[in-house]
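for the recovery benchmark. tokens below, seq after
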């Protein structure tokens, strides 16, 4: 009789195990196709969960975005033979949740066991970088010692690279760090090291392009930002920086092309419109310059002196003296010390006003204001203004003499 009951028990147990296996298989299939809520429901139905099931639950909750539940299940999963996997994922999720101190502790424990795993050092660096800390500096310390005191996470990024010279994320963090400190030599050294093993790393290429941009090396800036675009990267930041590099190299058509691309991301950006107005002035496309100049004024908050000045230059080139005077006057109202606008006003008046004495006064006021400046003798605009004062005095004298006769 006892054998009969044992037989019944084994049948029931095998059926329960089959049901559990079935529920797990269904849950795994649901997770695989992204139906995370249904997958969680099926994982939760499994009566006697092993740590591996808690790991699956944690991943499903993380994928769904219910991160607090994910953390709870990672903790339950972290006591099995998959402990290191669960702990690693748990630590990364702690970083995502902004629990940097806890994440630092998790990866420190992992490093104590797995001392040659570069990823754990990288992740601890991420956590440490965002942790608040009390810092005490010693005036006698070397620059390197002070740097390591201020930025202790650098050691972890450097250790990750020492263990794996191709660790792209650690290399990228180091390159970004040195870019912020304007240590361009180190940026380029690290970037080229990273590109040896991964030539299409867009994060590294972007950092390298910025390094050259801030150094003012336009040719290299253009090369690397163009490389980013060829790799499918296309942002307002990239287009603006590339456009500016072309602008500085006086490649105006290419500059315009990139600023127009930047404008697609931010159609009401006053700075982009103002820059395009200037560029179109350079190539004498005055219709386009006028349009972008007007948009720059429309979209920009105060002050507007530069935008008004650029638009006045457009109308000056079109010989529309009335509008040129209108907008240069607006510019000077915004900023009475805009030297370029002051000189432009005199030129516009010279072509617009019939009263030459009024024109003469504008030139004389300009000369009087800037003749005592430190670099007056090198100022070509001042020299031209003085020459015009002389010729206007001659014209007025001759006109007066003619009237007397």
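predicted aa per position
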């Amino acid at each position: 009789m006892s054998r009969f009951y044992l037989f019944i028990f084994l049948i029931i147990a095998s059926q329960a195990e089959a049901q559990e296996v079935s529920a797990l298989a269904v849950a795994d299939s649901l997770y695989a196709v992204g139906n995370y809520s249904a997958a969680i429901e099926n994982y939760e139905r499994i009566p006697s969960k092993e740590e591996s099931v808690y790991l699956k639950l944690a991943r499903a909750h993380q994928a769904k975005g219910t991160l607090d539940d994910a953390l709870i299940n990672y903790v339950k999963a972290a006591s099995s033979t998959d402990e290191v996997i669960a702990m690693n994922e748990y630590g990364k999720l702690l970083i995502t949740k902004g629990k940097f101190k806890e994440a630092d502790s998790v990866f420190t424990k992992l490093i104590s066991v797995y001392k040659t795993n570069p990823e754990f050092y990288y992740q601890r660096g991420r956590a440490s970088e965002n942790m608040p800390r009390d810092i005490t500096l010693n005036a006698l310390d070397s620059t390197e010692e002070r740097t390591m005191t201020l930025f202790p996470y650098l050691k972890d990024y450097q250790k990750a690279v020492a263990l794996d010279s191709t660790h792209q994320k650690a290399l990228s963090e180091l390159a970004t760090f040195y870019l912020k400190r304007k240590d361009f030599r180190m940026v380029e050294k690290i970037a080229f090291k990273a590109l040896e093993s991964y030539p299409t790393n867009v994060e590294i290429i972007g950092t390298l392009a910025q390094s050259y941009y801030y150094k003012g090396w336009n040719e290299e800036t253009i090369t690397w930002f163009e490389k980013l675009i060829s790799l499918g990267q296309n942002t307002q930041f990239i287009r603006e920086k590339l456009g500016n590099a072309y602008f500085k190299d006086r490649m105006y058509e290419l500059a315009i092309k990139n600023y127009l691309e930047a404008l697609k991301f931010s159609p009401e950006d006053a700075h982009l419109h103002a820059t395009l107005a200037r560029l179109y002035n350079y190539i004498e496309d005055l219709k386009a310059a006028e349009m972008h100049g007007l948009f720059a004024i429309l979209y920009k908050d105060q002050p507007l002196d530069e935008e008004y000045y650029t638009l006045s230059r457009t109308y000056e080139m079109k010989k529309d003296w009335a509008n040129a005077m209108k907008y240069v006057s607006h510019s000077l109202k915004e900023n009475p010390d805009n030297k370029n606008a002051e000189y432009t006003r005199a030129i516009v008046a010279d072509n617009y006003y019939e009263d030459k004495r009024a024109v003469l006064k504008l030139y004389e006021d300009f000369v009087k204001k800037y003749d005592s400046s430190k670099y007056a003798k090198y100022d070509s605009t001042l020299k031209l203004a003085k020459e015009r004062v002389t010729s206007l005095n001659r014209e007025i004298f001759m006109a007066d003499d003619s009237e007397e006769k």
